[in-house]
Write a structure and sequence with these properties.
The protein is mostly helical. Helices cover about 75% and strands about 0% of the residues.
């Protein structure tokens, strides 16, 4: 299997996971997709498909980490720009 075939199969698995979530009438999210991919991996026996699933799982995990880091970064900017020396009881 070529690299291009592996990437295509990875994309197909991510799409299948998304469709499975939609069929369950559940909210689609990256963690939900990750969980579906992991459940697919448990039942898969074909070596190429296992490798593509592992790649999809790694890519989705990386995306979750990237988004978490971005969110923490944005929250860090928010707290750095906010002031802690204000009076909660004063209304302006």
């Amino acid at each position: 299997m070529t690299e291009q075939d592996m990437q295509l199969l990875r994309d197909v698995f991510i799409g299948e996971a998304t469709l499975a979530i939609l069929n369950d009438n559940t909210r689609v999210s990256w963690p939900g997709i990750l969980n579906k991919l992991k459940s697919f991996l448990k039942t898969e026996s074909d070596t190429y498909r296992i490798n593509a699933l592992k790649r999809a799982i790694n890519d989705v995990s990386d995306e979750i980490k990237r988004r978490d880091a971005l969110q923490r970064s944005c929250m860090g900017e928010f707290t750095m720009n906010s002031t802690d020396n204000y009076d909660d009881l004063t209304w302006h």
